[in-house]
Amino acid sequence: MDVELFKKVVPHQCRASMWSQRNKPGKEHLTSTVCATVKHFNCVVTCVITTCLGDPSMKARDRAKVVEHWIKVAKECRALRNFSSLHAILSALRSTSVHRLQKTWKKVSRSSPPGLPL
After folding, report:
1. What's the half-sphere exposure (Cβ side, CA atoms, 13 Å) at 31?
2. Distance CA 118, CA 115 (A)
3. Is residue 25 assigned to a domain?
4. Lower CB count within 10 Å: N or C terminus of the chain?
């Protein structure tokens, strides 16, 4: 999905002069391709956070398994050189709402190979 979005990015839409006009009425089209990539990034972040926190009945061990899953996905994204999704997953895991889960992080396996700074 990221590749398809990045293929559509129009370079001139990345300029600051265009980006500053993105919210003005009638100017939304000026940065549509860049906004699509940002929207997708934010959707990935929301998905990760929601799966970690969405079920209030989850215990720390259950949340730790979800976090471990996302770490595995992030490692695969890195191997595939999908740096956009990798960064989105890491951003979600570093978000205040997930990062503050001290009991959960204590239960996350430390046996994972190093390489992804969390």
Report:
1. 19
2. 9
3. yes
4. N
- The number of distinct structural domains making up the chain is 1
**Which CATH number belongs to the domain containing residue 26 in this structure?**
1.10.840.10
115 in a domain, yes or no?
no
pLDDT in tens, 58-69: 999 999 999 999
Count of all residues that appear for the chain in the document: 118
User: How far, in Å, are 72, 100, 118 from residue 52 at the CA level?
Assistant: 14, 12, 15
| pLDDT tens digits for range 56-109 | 899 999 999 999 999 999 999 999 999 999 999 999 999 999 999 999 999 998
Are residues 62 and 56 in contact, defined by beta-carbon separation less than 8 angstroms?
A: no
Helix (H) or strand (E) segment spanning residue 114? none
